[in-house]
Every structure is written in C-alpha cells, then in structure tokens.
C-alpha cells in the first residue's frame, strides 16, 4: 500500500510530507526530488523506480504530488487516489497552488490522516468529509450528530446525509459532451468519438430515489418488443431536448461508467439507472459513443509550398447542423513552421492573428449558424534554414461550443420518488441543458 | 487565516522561542506554536528536542490541536521511546471517549507509534475498539491490527486479534468488511502458508455482497482479494464472474482494472464453447477502451495492462485498433505504449490504416517515438505478409527524407524484411547504398554491411563499398567488425577473382591486428575454411538462414500468466514479477492462473508458482521439482527411443527449463556430465528417484538426491553436483541465457554458470550480485567474463562464493535471487541451490558429543521422513563425499541404524538417524537440529 505522500513546489521544496509506512525513510523525499523533479532529462513515465522504491506522481500546475511505496501496490488505485486528493483539496480551498497549500497545511494533514489510513484509502467523498473536518473544532456536536457523521462516513450511502430540506425541490441536468475527431487531409474520418458526461445538480429534500432514462438503443429496442405502455408513461415526464442534427430515435452507447451512487448491479441486469443522488452537484455518468456522431464542423485544409521560403495555406470550415442553431467560441488553430518570418492573413469572418510565440495562426469567430461556410487564407514567409529535417506539419485543431449533443443523446426522463416526504415527481422542477464542446478536434494537413 | 507564515521562520534560537510558546498558558499561542513545529518538521528540520513540550499539549479538548500533536508523535516517538510513554495515558483515555471520532483517532494514531512499550498498552483498547458499537471505530481498528502486525506479528497472534479480524468479514457495515479484508490480505501476504484468508464459497458470497455496497476503495480491496481465490469448478467461476461484471461500469478506473483482473483469471476456468465465455469476452472490450479517456497517468497504467491482456487474449480488442491511434498532444509515455499495442493488434484487416498512421508518426518530433514508429513499420511488414510491399515502399519514402535517425532505423528493419522475404525486395538496395555515408550508429552500419555482403552478387561495387568501411576497421564497434569480416568473406565466395586482396586484408586485420578474441577466432575459422576447402566454406558461410519469427518482444508465457494475476498493480506496469522490485518476502509469492477444470493438467505439472496467498486449496500435494526429479525425468525420457516427444508443454517455468535441457543442452548433459560428474553415472545405474509426495520441501529433495547417489556401485568420492538448469531464459533477458549449477570443490562453494548470447549484438561488462539470502551466500570475487560475448557464443564461468554476506530468510529456504548486469541491461532471476552444498568439511562430530547433543534436542526439532527404493549398501562413503559424516552404526532388531552429522556453513548442526530395514529398501530418516530453527522450516 501507499507508504508515504509528498507534495513539492516547482523548485522541489517539500510542502507536505506524510509517511504512513515504516519502510519509507526520509531519504525518499530527496530521492524523488533529485531523480524526477531535478532530473536532467524530462522523466518519461509517471511511475519511477528508484532503488527499489516506486514513486507515482501527478502534476497540478507547478505542484508535484508524489505517492511512494516499496510494495506491489495497485497502481491504478494510487493514481485514482492522487486525483481524488486533488479534488478534495480543491473543494476545500480552491486552486492547488503553493500558496494555498502553505496556507492550509494543517488542514491538509488532517485530511491526509482521514482519507489514508496505513496507506489504505478511506472514504474521500467531499460531502462526507466536510461534515467533520472543518478547521473550526467540533466540540459543539451532540452525540446524535456524531453518530450521524460516523454512519454517513462508513455507511452504504456515504455521499448523502439524512434530513436535508428544501422549500423548492429542483434539479438541473447538464449533458456535456466533448466530440473528438481525427481527420485525414482528404476528409476521411480516421477516428471520432464523443465522450460525454451527465452532470446533475440536485436540491431535493430527504432521501429521494431517482430513476434516469435516456434514448439508449438497448433500452428502446427492448421496450419496442415489450409493448408501448412504459413508453407512454415515460413520455409524460419527457423532458424533451433540443436535438441537433438528425431526428435519431436512439443511440448506441459503447460504454458508460457511473457515479458510485448508481446501483451497478441493477444497471447490469435491467439497464436501468437508479440512485439516491448526493446533495448538490455530482457527475452522474460518463459515456462514450462512436457511431453516428454528428460532426459539427468540417475543416478542409490546403497547404502549398511555394519554393523553400513560402507557404500558402487555405482553410475552409463548414458547419454541419440545423441552421437555426448557433455555434459559439469558434477557434481554428493553424500551425506554422518554426522558421516563419512573416504571415499575411485574409479571412471572411471573425478575426485572425499570427501568434509567433505559439507558432500558429489563431482564427476566432464569435458565432456561426448551421449549414454555413467560412474561409481563411494565409501566406507564410519562411527564413531559409539548413535544417535537413522537414517540418512535421502538426494537425489543424479546432475549438467550439454547440447547443446540442453531438452523440444524439437525449434525456427521456428523470423521475424522483421520496416515499417519506410529501412531494411527488410532479412537484420537482427539472431543467435540462445540452452542450457539445470540441475535445481534440484535429484535421491533418 | 494564513498558515504560510509558519514556513518562513528560520532564525536562530527558534527552538527556544518555540519552547516558551508551547508552555504558554494561552491556548491560541500554544496552537500557533504547534503549527510552527509541524511546519518545521515538514521541511525537514529536526524538532525532536521539543518532544516533552509538545506532548504536554496533548491533553486538550481542541480536536485540531490534538491531531497536530498526534502527527508530531507519529514522527518522533521512535526516536524518543521513553518520552513517548508519557502519551500512553491520554491514548487509553481517548479510546474511551464518548465521541466515536476521538476513539477512532486515538486507536489510529496509537498504531502508528512504533514503540514496543506502547504497543503493549495498545492491546486492550484495540480489543475494545474492534468490538465498538460504532462502525467508524471498527473500521479504523481493523486497519490498526495490520499496523500492529507490522510492528509485532507474534503479539497479534498471541492476542487473538486475527480471529477477531476474521469475524469482521461478516460485519454488517460494508466499510468495516472492506478494511478487514485489506488488513487480512496484507497479513496473509507475510504468512504465505497460514491460510489466514480462509476463502470458501460462503466467505466469497459475503465479500460479493459487500462489494455492492462499499466505497470505491473498499471495492478495490475486495476485488483484489477475490482475485486470489481459486473457484472449485467452472460453475462457481461463472457465478462469481456474473457478480463481478457490473463493476466494469464503475467510474473509478482502479475498480474496473481490478474487476478485469478477476475476470481474466476466472475466465481460464470456463470452457471455451460456453455461451457465457463469449459474452464475457465481449463485455471486457468497452471498459478497457473507456480507460483510455482517463487522465494520462491512468491511461499509462491501463495501456501497460492492455499490452498484457492483448498478448494473453488478442480476441478481446482485435476490432479496437482505432482507439490506440496516437493523439498529437498525448504525453510521450502514452504515445510509446499505444504504438506497442498497435503493432500487436495489426492484422491483414487493418494494416492499411495502421501503416498510414505509422507513416504520420514517423514525421513527428520526438526522436524515440519516431524511431519506434519506423521500427513498427518494419514489424508490420514481417507480421502481415500482404502488407510487406507497402511497408517497404513506406520505408523508402522515409529514407528519402534524409533525416539521419529515420534512415538508420529504416535500414535496420529493412535488413529483417530481407531475411523474412528473401529475393523479393532487393531492388531497393541501390537506394540504401546511397545513404551509406550518413550511417553513424553501429547497429545501422552492421545492418547495411550485412545487406551488402548478402547481396554482393547484385551490387556492382560491393567490393568498393566494403573496402570503404575497411579503412577505419579498428575504430568500428565489434558488432560492425564481425559483420564486415563475414560480409567480405561472403563477397569473396561469390566473386573470388576480384576480391582476393580484400579478403586477405580483412583476415589479417581480424587475426593479427585485433585484440578481440571473438573477432580473431572468427577470422581464423574463415581463414582455415577458405584455405582447406572452399566448397565447404561456401556451404557454411552461404548456408540458408533460419526464418525469423513474426512476433517480437513477446513476454515469456509463464511471466505473462503471473502478470495477468497482477493486473492493475505495479508489477503489471513494470512488466516484472513482484520479486524483481519488492524487498523481502512480502508479495513475492508467485501467482498463476487457475487450470481449466476437467483437463487434469493442473495437478500434474510441477508446481513452482505456488498458488496465491496459500489460500487456494491445492487438490494434490504439490511436488517442487528438485534437481533430482528433473534428472529423473530427463533420464526417463532419454532411455526411451529418440522419437518420443517431450512432456506436453505446461505452464510451469521449471518444466520449461526441463524442456530446454532436453532440446539444446542434451549433449552437455550427456557428454559433459557423464565424464565430469560421477553423480550422473549413479543416476543412470539406479532407477530414477521417486520422491514421496509429502516431501515438498526442496531441501528434502536435495537430500534425496544424495541418497540416490548411494545406488551406484564403486563410485569415486566427490560431492553431488546437480545438472545444470536454465535459470534465465534468453527470452526474458534480451538474448542472454544463463544456466548453471552449484558445486562444492575443495571446500569452496562454486556457482558454475554458462552464459550464452542468443542476441544479435555483443555483450560486455558482465557483473553479478546476490540478494540477501538465508545462508549469506555472496560472490567472493567479480564475475570473470573478460572478453565480450559475441552473438551465439557461450562461455562457462565458475564463481567462487563465500557465506559471509548479509542474511535474510528466504522462502523456500534455499532460494537465491541473483542480478546479472551486462552492457544491455540488468536481469534478475532466482535459483535454488542444493542444501548439500553448504555442508562443511569439518562436520564430523565426536561420538560423545553426538550422543549428548542428540538427547538434548527437544522433540519439536525432530522430523522424520522416508526414502524409498535406494540401494544404500555403502552409503556412508558416498555421503562423506558430500560432507555427511557417519558417526556410528548399530543393529537393533534386524534394522541397521546409521547416525550421521552435518554441519552447515552458518554453524548449524544437523544430526540424522538412518534406519535401514533388512530386505526392505525403505529408509526412515530422523533428523534432529541442534539449534531451534524450525522457523526456517528446515526439514518438513
């Protein structure tokens, strides 16, 4: 198991050091600094073995977090834990920076004592932790409160406490998708996938049982066979959604993972998503689709080398969704060679600028409706070099935001049942929003 | 509130100031002072001088302050054990506190204070906390048992905490169950045979129920524990799989990987024609792909594991090639791993896509990545024949870029393509020759020279080209020199008329002006061949070459099986067994996949990798193949007609060794050893020793060998030397194969090694090192390999050993972990030495002393076992050759009794009584040890 945990600043000075196991000595702190942070060559693996001691590290801005062990630990768990620790720290004091860590070092030690025992990760749900690690002392708790805390920390529903009350029961669902594309210069899709998240913000009283439904192909097909009765019931509470491209009925989900509140065995057996949500915000589900993706934009590059000192670049972008919808924050990044000496740009729409420090032409368009087309052309002048190596044309990348889900996913319903309190599904105010963003959206040129 | 100010104070006299503040009456000031102390501690300053003052602050109802003081205590208690006692009272009191959070805090902290005196006081509070009404306290106490066990294992056993911990597995709270499982798994690891985690269908059911309810971390503990279980049959295996599969949808990647591990392992037991088997295979792919959208560090862990899974079960991901395409912004470690997997998945169906990608990668910036991409193109050509042509043309395109390292890498792989598809792509040679000047790496130069020599008849100016290399002959690396020598000889055999001068020149350079014996020897051989029989020379030098294999860099099957059992862990990231990077005995146990039920293979094959955790009930007592068994096997086989095939390949590593011996090393076995070692002769005379099944300690086996010797008649004196076995197969060590044995010659223990270079490049700079071991064996001098070891060369080395090295108990006792280094890498292997090697020459005990000692030894130290089928007529003489001395002989009731003494190099005496029943070839051996060493499991 994890033998120790260190946090360093960019210079390699220790900010936090907590040792859990006897086999980790003080010299481990220095070993990591010398061999990884100060290494002459950039370390090429997140796992380093130095003198039979293994170091796992992640970096957040310029802060290094390192976990140390001498045993054959579960490596995936160690990294998951390090990310989790970052989440917890962010939830407590915001951005992970040297200053914040120094300001909160007592709190961090307290957290580390709680979420890692003898190197074994313990409950690290921020919701639960915040009930008893507060930095204000907890003398005032009554006995009842104490046992409530401990039963929440260890309980089956560790992410939610009892007795929550809201005057207005409300929930917000965000379907956030990032669409990833790699396209060849000839317009052939090399790989494309959507990785999506359903984020739920709930303000519900009591311990509500929720059931979430979407246009999952497997469910829809099953229902098609089984009769339309449930379909009708579901239709009543249909939250609708402003779909983007085609009017697809259902989508094929390659794989999905759920927040720990979702009953996985139920999903496995019936493919129904039921849970008691944590209070406030949580990421209910992550999913991935690869079939029938609506690619919101198409990039058509044209690069021509004119002699050894000049490049002509023309890039056309086409939007490919309903004309009534508007894409926002569009940015096209056209890489330029390292020996660029000057650039002239002409674009029909938006603004384009050559950024020498980034070796790229950045073309920004604020808004663009569907089924439109726009174009940029640039002349790049190059300094003559005697470098034999050809320029390794990096791909043209794109950023954007569209108000629909490129995977075609639609929320069909989210039903809320709270048997003990007197509010019903109809009393809950529900909101759904779809946002599609670009992930790694690249076209080779 | 900003606490960062505490980090800044560095002025002198700080300790005194702090002392004053700590003793201040004001609570706030006290707290501030403790914070400063902790800050100093963090940055590495020694603040242990403040121990009494800080401990004084412990009695407080301020929880924050209390936690800080505890943190300080955990750090410094060890250096101030006497002072730490002061804290005990508070701990004991806190363990009774009405607030469960404080009770848990106290028991958690107490376990982290590694002071013997404190642990004594810990027992009572811990016992209470293990039965506390609050689950939070119980789950903390469960982990505390593991902490205590780490400090004082005996105490934990004596106090009966292990039983309490086992009870917690049935606790109503899932988190308590999870922590109890984690603690028990850890304790079980250091007691391989304790059967502590007594996994049976009932307890498995409990774990599976808890699995649905506990936190993500708890699920990992439980899944990792489940992976150690061996189901009784395929039906149980399937039902566990069915209950584990929902975990594949968990958001936590570690839960997913641990579930994959359980499924991969239990799948082994399912019959392949089962519908469920196919369903399961299909279910595994999507979660593995999803892991690739995690953070880069996790992607790396996932990719390393996928690399293993793809080798074990290629069918799972065969349609998922696209997800392994490299993204421009991937970190380099992710890129390199993805590339590896792409090559493994390349097939005729997707080769076009793969090639297009690889070509793209070859223009990237990172040198390592580009090289690997170029090499990958070559590997595709060799793997998928239909794509070879396209690959070659892609490589030619790349050569045209004139980027130095791309060209060199391309030439190296084109050489392999030529070998795989002879007489097909030689038209490209002209292009290759154009780049001759730009090659500066030995591997590329050697490859190019090989090509020129191999196709000398089609290259008009081959002689000129080779001559140009010859100018700087002495500056070249050995690899290039050897290749150049061979190439010119080939050229001469093909075009004898024009190149006579050239060949003479190279032969004289190689034989007269070179210090390198390999080069010299090869030169002489060619010279002799050419001068005596040019036809024979042609047959030898221009002989048809064996085909090269399609897959490269495959992990050796036994290792792969073991690594599959370690999915998700560090071992799977390093692609090394845990023993290679974990110190001591913890977690070094070999794991292996369960055998398919019904086939019966599982019980037959010798069982080296003992079932994990000792928890899996073995159907039959396992027999560790000692040298004797192996010898028996070999002899058996050897007596049979030569057409018999070897034993069916099995999963065991040792068996593989046996196979190797049979194949390659047969002549050394029969030729070398019959003459050299009398032991072998004896083995031939007698029937192969059959070990009683109960004798599963290798030591016993070794002893059996000794008795086995007795069977021969009129044997010359001399200690028993086991035949050489392969310790390190070439596949695992980048072409270096090591086999060897141990011998005792003239009172000195010798490790006799045979190093064989099966790689293409020369190996130099050999060195050897041992891990600490039970008898303190250590090399007495450096490994004497003075000359570089050329490709396909073999060298025998004898390494004298001393017994004065550091000692650590190994399991099995005679296990020796060895590291061998050469210019390529460091390789690790472990081997077992016959215990008889440690018997020293002055092991003859006086009769009186013997009698006295025999009586003094408590019965606990006595053990008995039987040896069958040995003809022990003049045994004592033979045994004396192995330093086992007969003290006395008497006859009681028709039984001959022999009394013998042995002294081990570490001074331990072993006394033995040998009962020989007349007419019955069975012998009973009673062993007595003069020192209590049963913990060493000397004789079972």
From TrEMBL, chain A:
GO MF terms on file? lipid binding
What PROSITE patterns has UniProt attached to this entry? CLAT_ADAPTOR_M_1 (PS00990), MHD (PS51072)
Q: Where does the protein end up?
A: Cell membrane; Membrane, Coated pit
- Which CDD domains is this protein grouped with? AP-2_Mu2_Cterm, AP2_Mu_N
Biological process terms in GO annotation:
endocytosis; intracellular protein transport
Highest taxon listed in the record's lineage:
Eukaryota
Q: Which UniProt keywords apply?
A: Cell membrane, Coated pit, Endocytosis, Lipid-binding, Membrane, Protein transport, Transport
UniProt entry tagged with the keyword Protein transport = yes
Residues bound to a 1,2-diacyl-sn-glycero-3-phospho-(1D-myo-inositol-3,4,5-trisphosphate) are 351, 353, 355, 364, 366
Residue stretches making up the MHD domain: 168-444
May I have one GO cellular component term? clathrin adaptor complex
Q: How does it sit in the bilayer?
A: Peripheral membrane protein
Q: Which Gene3D superfamilies does the protein's record reference?
A: 3.30.450.60, Mu homology domain, subdomain B
**Key word Protein transport present in the record?**
yes
Concerning PANTHER family, the annotation shows: AP COMPLEX SUBUNIT MU
What family does the entry list?
Belongs to the adaptor complexes medium subunit family.
Protein name as annotated:
Adaptor related protein complex 2 subunit mu 1
- What's the encoding gene here? AP2M1
From TrEMBL, chain B:
- Coarsely, its chief localization is membrane
Gene Ontology cellular component annotations, sorted alphabetically: clathrin adaptor complex; cytoplasmic vesicle; endomembrane system
Task: Please list where the region (Disordered) is annotated.
Answer: 593-623
Q: Which residues form the Clathrin adaptor alpha/beta/gamma-adaptin appendage Ig-like subdomain domain?
A: 720-830
Ranges for domain Beta-adaptin appendage C-terminal subdomain come to 839-940
Question: Member of which family?
Answer: Belongs to the adaptor complexes large subunit family.
This protein is called AP complex subunit beta
Q: What is the lineage of its organism?
A: Eukaryota, Metazoa, Chordata, Craniata, Vertebrata
- Gene this chain is encoded by: AP1B1
């Amino acid at each position: 198991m994890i033998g120790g945990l260190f946090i360093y600043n960019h210079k390699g000075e220790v900010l936090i050091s907590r040792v859990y196991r006897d086999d980790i000595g003080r010299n481990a702190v220095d070993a990591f600094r010398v061999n990884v942070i100060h290494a002459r060559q950039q370390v090429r693996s997140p796992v380093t073995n130095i003198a039979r001691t293994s170091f796992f590290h992640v970096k957040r801005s310029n802060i290094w977090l390192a976990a140390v062990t001498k045993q054959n630990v579960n490596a995936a768990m160690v990294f998951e834990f390090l990310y989790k620790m970052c989440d917890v720290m962010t939830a407590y004091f915001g951005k992970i920076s040297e200053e914040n860590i120094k300001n909160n070092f007592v709190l961090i030690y307290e957290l580390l004592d709680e979420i890692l025992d003898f190197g074994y990760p313990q409950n690290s749900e921020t919701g639960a932790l915040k009930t008893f690690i507060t930095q204000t002392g907890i003398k005032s708790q009554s006995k009842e409160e104490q046992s409530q805390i401990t039963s929440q920390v260890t309980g089956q529903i560790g992410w939610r406490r009892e007795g929550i009350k809201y005057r207005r029961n409300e929930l917000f669902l965000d379907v956030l998708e990032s669409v990833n594309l790699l396209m060849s210069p000839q317009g052939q899709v090399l790989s494309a996938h959507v990785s999506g998240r359903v984020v739920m913000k709930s303000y519900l009283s009591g311990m509500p049982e929720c059931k979430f439904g979407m246009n999952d192909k497997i469910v829809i097909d099953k229902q098609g066979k089984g009769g339309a009765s449930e379909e009708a019931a579901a239709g009543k509470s249909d939250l609708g959604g402003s779909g983007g491209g085609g009017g697809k009925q259902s989508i094929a989900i390659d794989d999905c993972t759920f927040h720990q509140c979702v009953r996985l065995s139920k999903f496995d057996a019936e493919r129904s998503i039921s849970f008691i949500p944590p209070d406030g915000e949580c990421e209910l589900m992550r999913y991935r689709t690869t079939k029938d993706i609506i690619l919101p934009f198409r990039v058509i590059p044209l690069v021509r080398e004119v002699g050894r000192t000049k490049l002509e670049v023309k890039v056309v972008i086409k939007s490919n969704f309903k004309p009534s919808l508007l894409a926002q924050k569009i940015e096209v990044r056209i890489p330029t060679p390292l020996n660029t000496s000057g650039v002239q740009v002409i674009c029909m729409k938006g603004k384009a600028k050559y950024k020498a420090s980034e070796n790229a032409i950045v073309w920004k368009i604020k808004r663009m409706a569907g089924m439109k087309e726009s174009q940029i052309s640039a002349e790049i002048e190059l300094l003559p070099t005697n470098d034999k190596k050809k320029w390794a044309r990096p791909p043209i990348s794109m950023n954007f935001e569209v108000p629909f889900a490129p995977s075609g996913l639609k929320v069909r319903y989210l039903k809320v049942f709270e048997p003990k309190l007197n509010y019903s599904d109809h009393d809950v105010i529900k909101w759904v929003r779809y946002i599609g963003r670009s992930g790694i959206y690249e076209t080779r040129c | 509130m900003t606490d960062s100010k505490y980090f800044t104070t560095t002025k002198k006299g700080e300790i005194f100031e702090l002392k004053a503040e700590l003793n201040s009456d004001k609570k706030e000031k006290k707290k501030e002072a403790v914070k400063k102390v902790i800050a100093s501690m963090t940055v590495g300053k020694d603040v242990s001088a403040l121990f009494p003052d800080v401990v004084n602050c412990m009695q407080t109802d301020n929880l924050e302050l209390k936690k800080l003081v505890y943190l300080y205590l955990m750090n410094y208690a060890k250096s101030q054990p006497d002072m730490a006692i002061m804290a005990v009272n508070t701990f004991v009191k806190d363990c009774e506190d009405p607030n469960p959070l404080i009770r848990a805090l106290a028991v958690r902290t107490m376990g982290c204070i590694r002071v013997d005196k404190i642990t004594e006081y810990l027992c009572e509070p811990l016992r209470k906390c293990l039965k506390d009404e609050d689950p939070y306290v119980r789950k903390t106490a469960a982990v505390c048992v593991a902490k205590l066990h780490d400090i004082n294992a005996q105490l934990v056993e004596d106090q009966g905490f292990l039983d309490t911990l086992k009870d917690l597995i049935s606790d109503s709270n899932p988190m308590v169950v999870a922590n109890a499982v984690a603690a028990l798994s850890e304790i079980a690891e250091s007691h391989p045979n304790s059967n502590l985690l007594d996994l049976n269908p009932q307890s498995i059911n409990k774990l599976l129920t808890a699995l649905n309810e506990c936190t993500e971390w708890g699920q990992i503990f439980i899944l990792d524990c489940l992976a150690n279980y061996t189901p009784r049959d395929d039906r149980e295996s399937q039902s566990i799989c069915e209950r584990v599969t929902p975990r594949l949808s968990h958001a936590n990647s570690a839960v997913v990987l641990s579930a994959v591990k359980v499924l991969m392992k239990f799948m082994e037991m399912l019959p392949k024609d089962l519908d469920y088997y196919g369903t399961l295979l299909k279910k595994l792919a999507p979660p593995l792909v999803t892991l690739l959208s995690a953070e880069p560090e996790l992607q790396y862990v996932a990719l390393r594991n996928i690399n293993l899974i793809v080798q074990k079960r290629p069918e799972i991901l065969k349609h998922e090639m696209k997800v392994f395409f490299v993204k421009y912004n991937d970190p380099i470690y992710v890129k390199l791993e993805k590339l590896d997997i792409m090559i493994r998945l390349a097939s005729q169906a997707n080769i076009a896509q793969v090639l297009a990608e690889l070509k793209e990668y070859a223009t990237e910036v990172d040198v390592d990545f580009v090289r690997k991409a170029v090499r990958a193109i070559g590997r595709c050509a060799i793997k998928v024949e239909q794509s070879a042509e396209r690959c070659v043309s892609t490589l030619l395109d790349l050569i045209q870029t004139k980027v130095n390292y791309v060209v060199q890498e391309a030439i190296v792989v084109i050489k392999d393509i030529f070998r795989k598809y002879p007489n097909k792509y030689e038209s490209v040679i002209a292009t290759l020759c154009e780049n001759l000047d730009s090659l500066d790496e030995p591997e590329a130069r050697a490859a190019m020279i090989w090509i020129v020599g191999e196709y000398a008849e089609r290259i008009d100016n081959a002689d000129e080209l080779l001559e140009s290399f010859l100018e700087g002959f002495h500056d070249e690396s050995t690899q290039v020199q050897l290749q150049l020598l061979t190439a010119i000889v080939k050229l001469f055999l093909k075009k004898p008329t024009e190149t006579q001068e050239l060949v003479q020149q190279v032969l004289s350079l190689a034989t007269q002006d070179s210090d390198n014996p390999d080069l010299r020897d090869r030169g002489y051989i060619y010279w002799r061949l050419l001068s005596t029989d040019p036809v024979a020379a042609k047959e030898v030098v221009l002989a048809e070459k064996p085909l090269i294999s399609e897959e490269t860099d495959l992990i050796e099957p036994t290792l792969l099986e073991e690594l599959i059992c370690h999915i998700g862990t560090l071992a799977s990231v390093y692609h090394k067994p845990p023993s290679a990077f974990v110190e001591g005995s913890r977690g070094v146990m070999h794991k292996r996949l369960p055998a398919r039920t019904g086939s019966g293979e599982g019980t037959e094959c010798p069982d080296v990798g003992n079932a994990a955790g000792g928890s899996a009930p073995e159907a039959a007592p396992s027999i560790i193949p000692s040298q004797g068994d192996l010898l028996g096997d070999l002899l058996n086989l050897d007596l049979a007609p030569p057409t018999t095939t070897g034993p069916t390949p099995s999963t065991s590593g040792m068996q593989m060794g046996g196979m190797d011996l049979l194949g390659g090393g047969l002549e050394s076995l029969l030729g070398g050893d019959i003459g050299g070692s009398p032991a072998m002769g004896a083995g031939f005379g007698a029937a192969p020793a059959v070990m009683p099944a109960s004798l599963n300690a290798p030591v016993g086996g070794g002893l059996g060998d000794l008795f086995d010797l007795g069977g021969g008649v009129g044997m010359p004196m001399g200690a028993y030397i086991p035949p050489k076995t392969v310790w390190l197969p070439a596949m695992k060590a980048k072409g270096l194969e090591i086999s060897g044995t141990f011998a005792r010659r003239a009172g000195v223990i010798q490790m006799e090694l045979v190093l064989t270079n099966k790689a293409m490049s020369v190996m130099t700079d050999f060195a050897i090192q041992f891990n600490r071991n039970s008898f303190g064996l250590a090399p007495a001098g450096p490994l004497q390999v003075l000359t570089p070891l050329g490709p396909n060369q073999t060298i025998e080395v004898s390494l004298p050993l001393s017994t004065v090295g550091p000692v650590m108990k190994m399991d099995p006792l005679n296990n020796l972990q060895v590291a061998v280094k050469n210019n390529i890498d460091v390789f690790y292997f472990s081997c077992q030495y016959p215990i008889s090697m440690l018997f020293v020459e002055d092991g003859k005990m006086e009769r009186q002393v013997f009698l006295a000692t025999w009586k003094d030894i408590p019965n606990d130290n006595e053990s008995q076992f039987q040896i069958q089928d040995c003809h022990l007529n003049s045994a004592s003489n033979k045994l004396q050759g192995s330093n086992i001395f007969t003290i006395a002989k008497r006859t009681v009731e028709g039984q001959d009794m022999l009394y013998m003494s042995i002294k081990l190099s570490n001074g331990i005496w072993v006394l033995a009584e040998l009962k020989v029943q007349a007419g019955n070839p069975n012998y009973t051996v009673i062993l007595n040890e003069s020192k209590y060493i049963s913990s060493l499991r000397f004789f079972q």
